[in-house]
Amino acid sequence: MTAAPAPADDPFAGLPLLIAVPKAAELLGISRASAYRLADSGELPSRRLGGRVYVVTAKLRSLVNGL
User: Fold this and answer.
1) Shortest CA distance to 54 belongs to which of 25, 11, 13?
2) How far apart are the C-alpha atoms of 36 and 32, rounded to whole Å?
3) DSSP secondary-structure letter at 8?
4) pTM for the full model?
């Protein structure tokens, strides 16, 4: 089973599996500080790797599309 291709106007198209929190903030149109707060509270789907925080792109897309 393969995933459907992303629409051409999808701002998440071509992004890696994990994106840095500042990039996610930019895509969402929120401040970097707000994005880190949301990641810390669990409202923004994130993972820690090597001391850095990354947002899971697929879950972020689902979150945005569910709004």
Assistant:
1) 25
2) 6
3) T
4) 0.78
Query: How far is it, in rounded angstroms, from Cα 58 to Cα 19?
Result: 10
DSSP 49: E
Residue in the block written with tokens 């895509």? 27
- For position 6, what pLDDT does the model report? 54
Burial class (CB in 10 A: 0-12, 13-18, 19+), 24: buried
DSSP code for 53: E
Neighbours of 25 (CB within 10 A): 21
| Residue that the structure tokens 């990039």 belong to | 23
pLDDT tens-digit map of 3-17? 555 556 777 788 999
Q: How far is it, in rounded angstroms, from Cα 64 to Cα 27?
A: 10
